[in-house]
User: Fold these one by one.
Assistant:
Number 1:
Amino acid sequence: MSQTSSATTSTIALVVNGEARTFEGDPQTPLLWVLRDTLKLTGTKYSCGIGLCGACTVHMDGRPIRSCATAVSLVAGKKITTIEGLAPAGAEHPLQTAWKAHQVPQCGYCQSGQIMQAAALLATRPNATEAQIESYMDGILCRCGTYQRIRAAIKDAQAAGRQG
Amino acid sequence: MSSTMLSRRAFLGSAAATGAFVLGTRLVPVSVFSQDALAQGPWEPGVYLAILPDGLVRIIAHRSEMGTGIRTSLPLVVADELDADWARVTLVQALGDKKYGSQNTDGSCSIRDFYEPMRVAGATARTMLEQAAAKTWNVPVAEVAARNHAVVHGASGRSLGFGDLVATARTLPVPAAASLQFKKAEAYRYVGTPMPSVDLEAIVKGQAVYGADVERPGMLLASIVRPPVLGSTLTSLDDGAARKVAGVTDVVKLAEATAPFGFKPLGGVAVLGTSTWATLQGRKALNAQWSASPNASFDSATFRKTLVDVVHTPGRVVRTQGNVDATIGVGPTHEATYYTPMLAHAPMEPPMAVAEVTGGKAEIWTCTQNPQAVQDTVAQALGITPEDVTCHVTLLGGGFGRKSKPDYAAEAALLARQVGKPVKVVWTREDDLQFDFFHAPSAQYLKAAIGPDGLPTAWLQRTAFPPIGSTFDEKEQYGGGQVNMGFTDLPYPIANLRVENNPAPAHVRIGWLRSVAHIHHAFAVQSFTDELAALAKADRVEYLLRIIGQPRVIDLAAEGAKGVRANPQHPFDTARLRRVIELVAEKSDWAKKPAAPGRALGIAAHYSFFSYIAAVVEVEVNARGQVKIPRVDVAVDAGTIVSPDRVASQFEGAAVFGTSIALLSEITAREGRIDQTNFANYILARQDNAPKETHVHVVKSTAPPAGVGEPGVPVIMPAIANAIFAATGKRLRDLPMRKVPMNG
């Protein structure tokens, strides 16, 4: 039987992709599992569970965070953006456009995290150099080895941004 | 173009409802279907292809998509031969079913084995549509031709869409494959062009569905504590605290597997709950004690010495010609010993499976490279027949060989049966690294007598590694076919040559990992070749071409190899090996980039999965001994290419994969337990240490298609080692190379 202990259960309000959501449960639950198990937003991926690989990267108030290593209690009242909410419905983010043009993904599993990390870079440092891109993206592991196409796509999106 | 992962029921249901014309290459007699009284009923003489009366073409993707693009590439071959408009093609991912032939997406063989069957499927349907049009118009079939989803009659300008022809086409006899006319290569519009993957859009939007993403109504999540040493068993369990964790619903003991372990679930203690977090917390709260196992003696550092020692003793001869013993002591000799460690697959998506078991039947949703093995393994675990197991194949978040071994699907099935609910088994990263089917640790010993021209006059090489066979027969210590992977088939014409295999026992489950035994064999052979070139003070590229010698087709049996069968479709032609070496030297500007202290190029060439590959890697080693790889050039002759961009991406990825193996990754064990737990200590290449640019140069070829997914890996490790030697004078014979200070 499932047991509920009020001592370990909290109600936490957060905003995910522009929608007010509430989570009831263990406040230590990583945001990743709230997104995936509770909110059914499975675009954010589990891979290491301890913030080492970045597959679970989402934005909290615009900053990239590792949702697998961020307790949901820490994002109470915050605005969370996942890959599903990166662009308005029916539209696509310039990075998604560039990602398709370069056919970046292989298996694709890490790519939500790659794109979310890159989106934070593009928003905060639109003119990041190659070395800065490399350093900023270093935390997001890709076992298929799509790194060079990731950098190429980011540079394309930078250029698209400069054009307008 | 659209793609779906429909269930079989949904697919056949909709096909039946719309009167689909289903066609494939494994044809069942038309008579079976001619009795179909319903004119609008599906006509299904085969398995790979359906055409609906509304003109939609439905193609079955029967291989697993783990990033190679195969789910797109093979259907493109069908569509091209059919002359279908790709925009009016929809894909359906196949269930596990023997009727498709092998679905084991492994061994770099999808295009190799199914290029022809897909052409036949497309050409058969096209021929029948053309015949249907000719019959409709009462004109000779030679006067009509399929053009972009329609059949046209040039003389009269008439045209009928594929959908309009379905009703007639399905009344016609299926032509014999031998009678089919195939498109000329220059007429292809999809094959050979860089078509995007059908999954690209879903992936960049976060909508792609992997094994981890499957959810069934009422499903429980499960996390399993497995026996920490292979063969150990549970001696005591306190699950009181685990059961008190909010959201935990069950704690279930699973019987421990016994040798031979095969694909059997390892057993252990599963914690089930209503959320992933609950099961993980419950699992942490378990107190499980385990018995000793004979494998608790396994210490990888000690075992390294065992392997190195054994290759310094005579082994089982797998190839011999001339007289090595009489010639190898004459004149100068060179010898070297190489070691490569255990490796884990570490796909970004760990193994995941969802199961429902009701009424003696199981339904599985999983990221698998081999759905038929899922059927077999689950059936064996549950004591039912494979036909009673339905396996849905999701996208795979990486595979690399791990996901052709379906122990995790059987775990889910056992738990689902036990609790009477759908269960998803979630492997953590720690589980993935500790309970992998590991790439074997290995040692090689090579010795050559060197002639006055610097070329070897005699050559002895030995290899030892716990074989994959040990997973299926624990007594097996010899490598069998794995010795032939880049070792027995040494492509150098040396008068006196002997190849030996020494025994090595396994203490963990050994499995195949991307490029398998080519990993260690290419590293040893191509490093040793470079060492001989260095002793000869020769240009490495020139030496490599000289040691390969005049172009020839190698007849291994005639050259003393035992039990090696030639593949008549794929003769080992050293002219093609030479060609990729010349090409990569040209494209990398080899001649213009002589080695300098701290910066140099290295070359390696290797034949695997019937593909000819050469790589030049540029390394920089700074004063602190850090290695950077500014550039990799890879020349590839993989025969006929279907998807050039996906081929390029496979070789770009292989350069990164090989860099991880060369510099970073290692699985170690003490007292039978794996030391590595996560990406902090199982280290993989990232942006910072991966090659900055990989340039892939593909030889245009009309030869039968060869492997692509794996052959890019073996050349990378020796090319890096050879470049580091050229840059620093340090010859690194142990992987991973990060363990040796390069500035010392």
Note: Residues 4-20, 22-38 of chain B have pLDDT under 50 and may be disordered.
Number 2:
Amino acid sequence: MEQFKKILRFELKGYLTNKVFVGVTALLVAVIFLVTFFPRLKDILGSGDGDTPEEREVMLVSGGDGAALAAIAETFPDYDVRSSEGDVREAVTAGEAECAVELHGLSDFTYYVDNLSMYDTNAERVSEALTGLYRLNALTGAGIPAQEAQEIMDAQVAFDVQSLGVDQGQNFFYTYVMIFALYMVILLYGQMVASNVAAEKSSRAMELLVTSAKPTAMMFGKVVASCLAGLLQLVCVFGSALLFYDLNRGYMEEGGIISLLFDMPPALLGWMLVYFILGFLIYAFLYGAIGSTASKLEDINTSVMPVTLVFIAGFMVVVFGMSSGQVDNPLMVACSYIPFTSPMAMFTRIAMSHPAGWEIALSVAVLLGSCGGVGILAAKIYRAGVLLYGTSPKIGDILKMLKKA
Amino acid sequence: MRLEFRDIHKSFGEKKVLAGVSFIAESGRAFGLLGRNGAGKTTSIRILMGVFPAESGEVLLDGKPIDRNKAGIGYLPEERGLYPKKKIIDQLTYFAELKGVRSAEAVKACDRWLERLGMAEYRDKRLDTLSKGNQQKIQLVTALAHDPDIIILDEPFSGLDPVNAMLLKDVVKEEIQRGKIVLFSSHQMSYIEEFCDSIAIINKGEVAITGDLHEIKRDYPRDRLAIRSAQVERIAADFPGQTVTAENGELILRLNDPGEKMAVMQKLSAEYDIDEVRVFEPSLNDIFVQYAGD
């Protein structure tokens, strides 16, 4: 235990005095500062020269009558809608107009745009405007007075949506951010643990370490130190994000993505912490064990590949589950009990669905047990691995070593 | 103190590395552990340090199984290496603390040793800014700072210039005088011969010979004379088939009968211009080649 504490302190100090570690954390905090303070800054800077009108994009409309043009202009107040007699295609290609609508009648048109954006809904909006115009014409044509016809057209059915469980539309963003943070931190730090062990081996510091400390103390000390460093980095990044957001809450757009991101229930942060720590530990142990079997730093990338692939596969399952909205599909349920995928899968289900209490307890228990098991196993591989130089051992050799250890 | 290896066996997979290694090293005397590459020296050292257990046999300290938590062991590995990017004092205290020294004492002890080895000015430097020889001196501190009872030095002199080698010799002699058990492992026979009172030569996992170096030498048949003379060619011609010339230019004369030693010595002094004549004792090198050779 005494050795574990000393190793933990030494390794943690190593992280905290590492310029890259400190630099990256500071950079992330700076980026978050800029993003969260941007609306306020824009407000302060923008208030001075608020008089200059924004230049609007040009939308050309050809064919059709004045009513159609007026309806389109009304639908697109953000565009400078102009009537055109010439070839609108050419005008768009030449860059004279952002987009163009060529009317072939009230029920048929072509929308021209240079590069069609993923989010371009102009064609649908034009269609809506023209459909309205068409129906209005039809109603007035059938003898209904224009004002009455307009009222019929404007009639709206009021509705209200109340989600009794969790609102996936709202929690999708912060769940995604948290899962992604989990993914990044585990991959980055896992690799760091592996290369740290391999570096000690290749610099032969290992010769002295194995004769000075117990392999379990070494393994647990290293992994827990990296876990704390990762946690500290997360706390810095998320903590400063929350703080900056809170300072700028008044400037944020209501319902905007940034507001959605920060609108997470505190209990979820707790679960994130639990799954982060356990998920981190289990992977860091594996990475550490693999690092100990490599003789050269260059071998690390290929050696850790299988573990990284398992992890990425788990991440994919979770992301697909999230984007399909089916976070309780059978694959996700299975993954939420497998220790290597449960940190992400079960966390996503907690965030976006309602898993039963026993399900969460079982998942945490399995993960906790596996962490201990993998940790001890990793220490054994480590002890045998660190004294092997030359070619990296095959998986079969490692299993043989384990049997003996 | 008395460190005893008693019938140690160890295999790695199919390969038998140690097949019954036994020897005794005592405090206040340096012990030389010799053997060719792959003979089993490092495995023996690792078993002593508890890196892995022996399959059978015991390591005893004063007759009782060694308690590695109580008896400190200092180790200078043949494969040198520390953390190249870390501050020297930080890593030295880290290793001392791992060996159970309290933090403040570890810093004091490391500073004392840096001072002793003339390395105090590098205390706060990164290890990779030092020359190879100086890095080696830093590594020596990791073996000594926790004031161990048993000191294992694996090829301690390789890479040191003559001045540093002298410094290391002085340090080692002090430690021997302080009653430490010092275990040397080296291929440089001259150093072993200078320091070690006892040796063990390990060959193919077995102890080929062990004991007091002087006694081992004395046990050789005293049937050869070493002669230094300007007239070695004449002497060789007068004793046909009985002489060989040693590397240092001495003529080695093998006697037909050890009993005629005095008579031959008198004859040589009377008839030739002799600088020196003495009974030939084999060097450690000769002994090593004899026991560790194929």
Note: The interface with chain A takes residues 46, 49-52, 73, 75, 77, 79-84, 86, 90, 94-95, 97-100, 139, 142 of chain B (CB under 8 Å).
Number 3:
Amino acid sequence: MAENIVSIQGLTKDYGPLRALDGVSLDIPERSIFGILGPNGSGKTTLLSILMDILYPKSGSISIMGQPSSYELRKKIGCLLETPSFYSYLSAEDNLRIAAKIKDVDEADIPRVLKRLGLYERRASKFSAFSLGMKQRLALASALLGNPSLVVFDEPTNGLDPQGIVEVRGLIRELWSEGKTVIIASHLLDEVEKVCTHVAILKKGKLLATGSVEEVLGEGLTFKFSAGIKNEELRSILAKLNDIKSITQQGDLLIVNAYGQLTAEELNKLCFENGIVLSHLEMSRKKLESWFVEVTQNT
Amino acid sequence: MLQKLMALEWMKMRKYKAFWIMLGLFVLGFFGLVYIMYAINNEAPTEMIGSFLDSFFRYPRIARLTAYMGSYMFIVLGIVLITQIANEFSYRTHRQNIIDGLSRTQFINAKWQIVVLLSVFATLVHVGFTALYALMGDGGTVSGFVSSLKYSLFFFLDSLSWLSVALIITLWVKRSGLAITLFMVYALVVENSLAFGIKRSFESNLGEYFPINVADNLNPNVLAPFVNNSRPTEEIAVAVTCVYLVAFYIISRRMIKRMDLK
């Protein structure tokens, strides 16, 4: 079982009368892509800001790599928080030199990260001359300086065109395959579903749910069966299974909601062994979006 | 660590055109203000004003004159500092610096390094112009130059005092336009008005001990036809200025350490 690279305990943060985080406790496993989901104003950025020591919590604690947060520890974390923040009058390269100096990273690493984010040719251009997408890429490049084992991206695809979004998604997967832990805060559910191994949902500062993507979506399997005149017989066979949540009929189709790790192959085999030949079998996994809506609307 | 912080601030400043333009303005303004006195001295009829001013263009009084005239340019240095620090807040690079691994104490220490470096720069300019105008006056002597260094030290403390006030105001309001306005109003109007009001109402010289006034008392108006007897002595003014500087450093550290960096 993976160790937790970040452990958050009972984090609470107030902005005046507004409670931005309300006793959030969360464990982020090492070598995961951890998506923090939530509507605007749910506390995602506040959570990451406290993680990076930008904001102070009212109560609660955070441990990163088994230690309390410190400036020395932050040097080992790559982070893009909200909007890219650089000196507008300096070039991309000069801005990264400043970040490298703070992080105690050799300047020789700068060309590597610029090439990786496709900015090497524009390294001498001033930050103020960059498009929003290029600024975002520069911030991602800065986060990768020194090859950190933990990277934190807050809305990493902000301002990127569709091609850029695909590239960032690829980058996140690459970082993960290199053994890094990636934490992403986003309100773009589709984006998170495509890359994340784990997710957490925040709403109005409260943690509503967390777990691996398999765990949270595995509960949302839907099968559509049809066995013609043998539908009733099929229903009674399926009803005996432990993993079945509900069975309803829509016309000629039996709609089965299931828990667990049931597969279409297993069910097809079960029907065949009971002398039922299926004329229709379709499996669909619940989308993150519908899970998100279900979780957030119920609270 | 101090070297690293200095290198970091240098990387931020060296390509910032406004910074160099403002420093250039400081030097030109400083030179120009003293030159006006020099020109009056040379061109006015001797019997009217020349003989009075002439005595200022020799050691050690030239150092007092340049210090007094140069202290008017602290406003420009303050604006340089405010712009440099407020930029961090407006670009939100202060947050990014902390995220990247700077501690809050290191961040504020780096800003205090700018305060000290700008004051060292101003002092070197003072020493240079003092020597230059002494040469243009009676030629000057080495012993005269050495005897005037005390006034360069006073000029340094005065500069530190002005800049520390600018630093605190910038940390407080974070926006350059507002910070510059508040700094100018405080330094040029508020302290003097309060000092005047206190003196008039309570016959007290308390106003002479306000942060900028007390440091300015180290570089008094040597052209004034009367002597201000309510001024603290040089020793007391130096001591009080140093106390203010330590207090401002502690306050600035507490401000940055307690603040949420939004």
Note: The interface with chain A takes residues 4, 7-8, 11-12, 15-17, 87, 91-93, 95-103, 106, 258, 260-262 of chain B (CB under 8 Å).
Number 4:
Amino acid sequence: MTASTVKTQRQPIVPLLPMPLLSTPEAAFAARQRQRDQSSHPELWNLLDAVKDPEVPVLSLWDLGVLCDVQQDAQAKVSVTLTPTYSGCPALETMQADVAAQLQQAGFEHYEIHIRLAPAWTTDALSPNGRRQLQAYGIAPPLQDSCALAAALTPEAGIECPHCHSDNTRRISEFGSTACKALFQCLDCAEPFDYFKQL
Amino acid sequence: MDNREAHVADSQAETLRAATVSYAVRLGDDALVLGHRLSEWCSRGPFLEEDLALQNVALDYLGRARMYYSYAAELEGQGRTEDDFAYRRDARQFSNLLIHELPRGDFAFTMVRQLLVDVFNTLWLEQMQRSADQTLAGVAAKGIKETRYHLRRSHEWALRLGDGTPESQQRMQQAVADLWGYTHEMFEMDTLEQSLVAAGIAVDPRPLRAPWLQQVTSILTQATLSVPQDGWAVRGGRSGYHTENLGHLLMELQSVHRAYPGVSW
């Protein structure tokens, strides 16, 4: 492998045409699943399932919804498209490096990693499996009622505790350990916990 | 199309491209400078959760700055990178609005500034999502979601501190008075932006003043704060005429790059 054939960092930001607006989280994920199912390179998607979110290491980039597309052209060059969760998400560069490492390990020499901004990432893109894994990891998954964007902010109470499943909880802070999480406390088991906030 | 017409079309496209580069740099400067001011609160917040919240907001702005600068660099095509825009320009070459560079002041000043800017950004980003420039529209589509969270927080703080103790109320009122004259610049437009508005790339900020004033008035009134009369106004940021504060900010922000050019770690 020569350095000149491998591009991992500082790819230009490529906006693609926005996908049609999807109204429910189920529909949003179903559209992603369909795209994956119809891919002519399912093995590449499966390969990248091993790449996890560096900050929530139980979630794959697929489950998080950050992995938008995987393609391979006639010259066998792989193109991976990622989208950032938040504008300033510091994990994005690690994700790119991890995708690159995974591809290299599997013997792919020619690949490109693109960053796509539109359509913007939303928590609706989380997979059902990802939601379960978040819960098991101790992070409450985002609410699923994104009909009204204005209401899609973090509630003050009532997020189900991922430990004891009580909904007798209160919000401590709208901004938690990372941009994508808010901080809650359970008033029954007294444990503080992260809530993966809706976006 | 004959050669002459093709030439004219090329030169118009070139002018528009150059203007878009400048516009992206302006927006990057706004985001970088305000993000840096917020980051100065790190470890100085009134309590841990608030400290984290301020850094989360700072990070959102830093992310926007990187997207704007990277796009400017790509569009310019001269081999510059986002770092060249952030670290290798002097104050005179920065084109951020002055309101973003004012020192962070006390917590009241910081939150009032966020409130005034957040209300503006919700209105402005909403429209920027429909920019004819797909990258700028994409950055706005991400930013608007983050900004709604920002505004809810600055709104809550305005109520809590405005309608708080006599001291917090007085500090909030003072901050509103100190900042008011810097808000007018947000709603002004020079010829560069006019050309981009005509091309559907930039948003005309002038019509945003009325809904901004209405929202800000409603929040301040709810917070038992009075809305100042329009009087003095300071401007010049877009042309590179800054307050002395920007030089101090850049001295710190750029110090490592200035001492060790091209350093990486």
Note: Residues 3-252 of chain B form a domain with the Ferritin fold (CATH 1.20.1260.10).
